[in-house]
Design brief:
This protein has 100 residues and is an alpha+beta fold. It has one domain. The chain has three helices and three strands. The chain has a three-stranded antiparallel beta sheet with strand order 2-1-3, with no helix packed on it. The C terminus is likely disordered.
Length: 100
């Protein structure tokens, strides 16, 4: 569990996406996983594995994180996750291009 390692929790918040098979996918924050949205499970205040609070991104290798591509656990899915990435929002891209 990463709750004893706050630096891992902080680092995970800057990596809001995954590169899977050369495509970018937004990560699913804790509490927004399909199992919670469907009502099959009621979210707790914090993730039972990594300790993040609702709305935060799970830490690396947390067994509760849902894969944004296939919907299974990131830890056990068969998607080819190449890396954790920071996805730049469209507004950030406009600002970046106007600065050059």
């Amino acid at each position: 569990m990463d709750r004893k390692h706050p630096s891992s929790i902080i680092e995970a918040q800057f990596l809001n996406g995954y590169k899977i098979e050369s495509k970018e996918f937004n990560r699913i924050p804790f509490g927004e996983e399909e199992i919670f949205i469907s009502g099959a499970l009621i979210p707790k205040d914090t993730c039972g594995d990594c300790g993040v609070k609702e709305g935060m991104y799970h830490t690396f290798r947390c067994d509760q994180e849902q894969c944004p591509k296939c919907g299974w656990q990131v830890l056990t899915c068969e998607c080819d996750i190449e890396e954790n990435i920071e996805i730049v929002e469209a507004t950030d891209l406009k600002e970046a291009s106007s600065e050059t």
